[in-house]
Amino acid sequence: MSMNQVDQFFEAMVARFQPQAAVDLDAVIQYRLAEGESYYLTVSDQRCVLDRGEHGAPCVTLKMKFDTLQKLGRGELDGMKAFMFGKLKVSGDMSLATRLAKLFPAG
Mind telling me which InterPro entries this protein's record contains (predicted)? Predict the structure, then answer.
């Protein structure tokens, strides 16, 4: 895994963002990868902005390996199954975590 791969993955994720699914949403979604990288997405006013690093007060934090994130992003792995099998750890707003597939459809 290279930084370039991770950056490209998150940039593609932002490109798949569905503004109509975020009409009522103002949130920060933190991603912490087991490999040590952290990114967060700020969703506000039906827009999504990607930043590297840690946000001070995310609404939800998702922890996983990059491989798991890629499988989720390609639709090869269901988020609930990943959570139940311990491949995905979620802290914070669980209801927001369940909306992610609509906000960022698999691609």
Answer: SCP2_sterol-bd_dom, SCP2_sterol-bd_dom_sf
Give a yes or no: residue 105 inside a domain: no
Domain that holds residue 78: 3-100
Phi, psi of 50 (to 5 degrees): -100, 135
For the record, the structure tokens of 89 come out as 């750890």
Structural domain contains residue 32: yes
- In three-state form (DSSP H/G/I as H, E/B as E, the rest C), the secondary structure along the chain is CCHHHHHHHHHHHHHCCCHHHHCCCCEEEEEEECCCCEEEEEEECCEEEEEECCCCCCCEEEEECHHHHHHHHHCCCCHHHHHHCCCCEEEECHHHHHHHHHHCCCC
56-65 pLDDT, tens digit each: 999 999 999 9
How many domains does one find in the chain? 1
Does a structural domain hold residue 41? yes
